[in-house]
Amino acid sequence: MLEPKTFYRELDALLAKIRIERSDQDFLPFILSELQRNFGEQLHFNNGRIYELRGEDFVLIYPHNDKARKVWADRIPRESETIQLAYKNRSYIYDDLPLNRIFFASGEKFDHISTVIWVHSPERQWLIVFELNDGWVREEVSLFLNAVRTSINYRLFSEIMGGRLEQAVQIQKSLLPKRAPKIEGYDIFGHSHPAEFVGGDFYDYFQFEEDNFGVSLGDASGHGFPAALLVRDVVIGLRMGLAKELRIIHTLKKLNEVIQRSTYSTNFVSLFVGEIENGGHLFYANAGHPAPFLIKGKEVKDLDATGITLGFLPEIDLHRSYVRMEPGSTLVLYSDGIIERENENEELYGIERFKDLIIKHQKRTAKELIKLIFDTVFDFGNQTSWEDDATVVVIKRL
C-alpha cells in the first residue's frame, strides 16, 4: 500500500508541474514520462503510450520507435466498445482481459490489464494508455488517473483559451487610440477600463484638418466578448464613414442598420460623435448616450441625446446639434460605468458628484483630470472590482 502523506505530496508536486509546463507538442510525452518515473513503480504501471484522435481512429503518436509499433496497435477505432468505455468514464481500468486486445498489434500475445486516461483540448483529443502490473490497487490507480486527467485537461484548456483571450485583448487594444491628437489650443486625454478582459466601451479621435478634429465615445450593451465583437464593427464603421468628411448622421444611420442585422447576443450601442471646428464650434450627434457636459466656471451645459440608441429600430430619427466651446471650457465624455458605480450602501456615484468633481478641479490638465476621476470613482466603490466598463475623454479648450 502507498504511504498516503508521501503519495499526496508527490502527486501535488507533479500536478503543479503539469500546470506550469508549456503545452507544446512535447507536453504530453513529457507528462507521460514524469508519471512513469515518479509513480510507475509504486502504482505498478508502465509501457505508457499516447494516441491522438485523427478522423475516426486514435493513432499511435508516442513512443516513436519501431519496437513499440510492433507490439502495440497503430490505430484504434473510436467507436470500438473498449474506447467508448474510456469516453464514457474519462478514465478506465480494463480488468476484463478481452477488452485489452484492441491495444495490441495483430498477432501479439497480451496478458496485461490496460488503463486509459482520455484527455482533450478544445480542438484535439488523446488517449494515454498504461499497462498495469501485478500488485496494482484499484482505488489508488483510479484516484491517481482522475487527478492527473483533470489537471492535464485544465492545463490544455487554459493555455488555448488564455491565448485566444490574449488575442481578443490585443485586438481591442488596437482599436483604442494609442494617444490623443495634438491640436493647437486644446488639451485632450482619454482612458477606458474594461470590467472584464475585454469590454463594450470605446472611444476614438478623428483629425480632418490641422484645426478640425472629431471625437467619439460609445457603449455596447453588456460587456465581455459579445460586446467587444460589436465594438470592433462600430469602431471600424466609424473610421470608414468619417475618414474623409464628417457625415455624422449618414454614418450613424448606416451603423444602425449594421447593428440591427448583427447576430451578437448584445446589439445596442449608445454613441456620441462630435466635430470641433476652428473657433471651438462643436457639432455633435448623441445616439442615446449619457449626456456629455461642458463646464466653464460653475456653468454646466449638457449635450443631450439627439436620437435613440443604435440597434433598437431598423430606421432611426437622428439629428445634429451645436454648442460652442469657449476658451477655458472643459468637455467631458463618459460611459455610465462612471456614474453608476455603487458604494457599500448601494448608492450610485451619480452625475451630480461627477460634475462637482470637474467644477472643483477644472484647472487641472486633461490627463490629471482623468486620473482624478478614476481614482475618485474607484475609491467611492470601496476599491472593489469594476462591475461595468468605464471610459472618460476630457477635451479642454485652452
3D structure, described in words:
This protein is an alpha+beta fold and about 400 residues long. It has two domains: about 5-165, 2-Layer Sandwich (Beta-Lactamase), CATH 3.30.450; about 175-395, Phosphatase 2c, domain 1 (4-Layer Sandwich). Helices cover about 35% and strands about 25% of the residues. It contains ten helices and 16 strands. The chain has helices at about 5-20, 25-45, 65-70, 80-90, 140-175, 225-240, 250-260, 335-340, 350-360, 365-380, and strands spanning about 45-55, 55-60, 75, 90-95, 115-120, 125-130, 185-195, 200-210, 210-220, 270-275, 280-285, 295, 300, 320-325, 330-335, 390-395. α6 (about 225-240) runs antiparallel to α7 (about 250-260). It is elongated and about 90 Å long.
Which oligomerization state do the chains in this entry correspond to? Answer: single chain
- CATH-defined architecture of the largest domain: 4-Layer Sandwich
* Low-confidence residue ranges: none
**In DSSP terms, counting alpha (H) and pi (I) runs of 4 or more, how many helices?**
10
How many strands in all? 16
N-to-C terminal Cα separation, in Å? 80 Å
Estimated structural class: alpha+beta
CATH topology of the largest domain: Phosphatase 2c, domain 1
Strand numbers in spatial order across the main sheet: 3-2-1-6-5-4
Highest-level CATH class of the largest domain: Alpha Beta
How does the major sheet shape up?
A: 6 strands, antiparallel
Strand content: 25-35%
What is the residue-mean pLDDT, rounded to a whole number? Answer: 87
- The H/E string reads HHEEHEHEEEHEEEHHEEEEEEHHHE
**Which overall shape is indicated by the principal axes computed on the Cα atoms?**
elongated
